[in-house]
Specification:
By secondary structure, this protein is mainly beta. The protein has two domains: 140 residues, Diaminopimelate Epimerase, Chain A, domain 1; 152 residues, Diaminopimelate Epimerase, Chain A, domain 1. The chain contains four helices and 19 strands. The chain is globular.
């Protein structure tokens, strides 16, 4: 096989190369992933998503063999447990490729476990993101300037250094099937000043690395009788660098900001990312992510050029 059919899609400008490989015939290697994601020599994307039956890949061993599995890879050729934006694009891809009806929801396999994707209206999709978990506090010296009303030192368990941000800031660990560190900033000026061309340094670091989100609160409002918070974030994804959006990161941010805000904080959060707006709805232990997904192009790529 020297050519490969692909689709390009994005969700709030978090973009992916999508491959339909129902029976797992494709040898999807880290080298091929890096080539496909290369924005100059390949197609370009923050990651690769393969639609494959769970029984055809080792990672799907815990799922029903006939279930669809979202085989997600970062741009650097590493695999990832979960991608919230990717799951929505995956849903749109399955609708087109298989005529699946997702209005009633469809459970797919991921490396983080099963997730249910549901088609909404106007090109939007909801993803049941499963349970989230927050980290525990570690002693250390933290900058207190980013603490706001309702926050406590116990809400932070790590420290993050980034270019353009002085001094280092406290961070909260949140696991949404994949690991995150969320940092609260005091102003939009601080958020804009960050140079995220270099990956932030997290102490203590997660053994497999983590996504790092920087967030500024933007107040809130009330729509249809429901209180909603609003925040803005930027994110550096492990294996991809700064991206225009991150679905699991939006969930991690909503979890952290709600905890920092204290009792009475909203359970619904609109999260502004450079590529658009995502909505996160929280329960005590789980989350739902909503937002758009778009398939923008299809084509054929010569994979003999992969180096």
């Amino acid at each position: 096989m020297t050519t490969l059919h692909f689709t390009k899609g994005h969700a709030t400008e978090n973009d992916f190369v999508l491959l339909f490989d129902e029976h797992g015939d494709l040898d999807l290697t880290p080298q091929l992933v890096r080539y496909l994601c290369d924005r100059r020599a390949g197609i370009g994307g923050d990651g690769v998503i393969r639609a494959v039956r769970a029984g055809a890949v080792e990672a799907g061993a815990d799922d029903h063999p006939d279930a669809w599995f979202m085989d997600y890879w970062n741009a650097d050729g590493s695999s990832a447990e979960m991608c919230g934006n990717g799951a929505r694009v995956f849903a749109a891809f399955l609708e087109r490729e298989t005529d699946a009806d997702l209005v009633g929801g469809l459970t797919i396999g991921t490396r983080a476990g099963p997730r249910t994707v549901t088609a909404l209206t106007d090109g939007n999709y909801a993803v049941g993101m499963g349970q989230f978990h927050t980290g525990t506090f570690h002693t250390g010296t933290f900058h207190t300037g980013t603490f706001h009303t309702g926050q406590s030192r116990a809400a932070f368990d790590a420290e993050v250094e980034a270019v353009g941000l002085t001094p280092a800031r406290p961070a909260m660990s949140v696991n949404v099937g994949n690991p995150h560190h969320v940092v609260a900033l005091a102003s939009m000026a601080e958020l804009d000043a960050l140079d995220l061309t270099q990956a932030p340094r997290v102490t203590p670091e997660h053994p497999q690395g983590s996504n790092v989100e920087f967030v500024v609160t933007r107040g809130g409002d009330r729509k249809e009788g429901i209180e909603r918070g609003r925040v803005r974030m930027r994110v550096v994804e492990r294996g991809s660098g700064e991206t225009r959006s991150c679905g699991t990161g939006a969930v991690a941010v909503a979890v952290a900001v709600r905890e920092w805000a204290g009792p009475g904080a909203p359970d619904m959060w609109d999260v502004e990312v450079p590529g658009g707006v995502l909505t996160v709805t929280l329960t005590e232990t789980s989350a739902t992510l909503e937002g758009p997904a778009v398939l923008v192009a299809t084509g054929t790529v010569d994979i003999s050029l992969a180096q």
